[in-house]
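Minutes, project check-in
Item: structure for the 212-residue chain
Input as provided by the requester:
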Amino acid sequence: MPSILVVNPKGGCGKTTIATSIACHYANRQIPTVLIDRDPQKSAADWHASRPANCAVIELITLNTEEEFQADITDTVVIQDMPAGWQPNADSRLFRADKTSQLLIPILPSPVDIKAGLRFLMQLYRSGLLDKNVRAGMIANRTRAHLRFHQELMDFLQRVQIPLIGTLRDSQNYIRAMENGISIFDLPTRHVQKDLQQWQEIIEWLEPGPKT
């Protein structure tokens, strides 16, 4: 199964929330799931430490930014929460030639985040990673459709070569879930229906079916 890296050189864009949400999605489907926390702040590790015992099992591993993960992961989903400041590099040991890697790039609707996102995408294009067995998708995160910079972010994402694979609203559901070591995939569906609907497009991109 693919390795999923949640990346953005700018901190505070929601990488950990997205990484833990994806981990819960797969774990709830009884798929072996490993969450690797490579961020020195260890936010994913803190989240995992508060996870209730009756929730689906997620294995947590803490590693340095470029430290190799040595394991047979053929039937395991691996989600990596990358640190702020990570730079794309085609020679990185994080990427294996025999395994598809997927980069998820969350970006917030603010001028600072859009500029940081543009610089990162330019580095990603130049790195050569996208010429390898690597797919990349953008996520518009913590959006509020009525605010000015929401549309500016949407306009920016429509101009870049990497596809926009999902738009997630600014919701207190994510904050409440993170505080308790869970995700929206662990909450009662009736409380998070809108959020789950927004995730559907992202899940479909992560799990492309056979083309007909």
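Outcome recorded: The radius of gyration is 16 Å.
No further action items on this chain.
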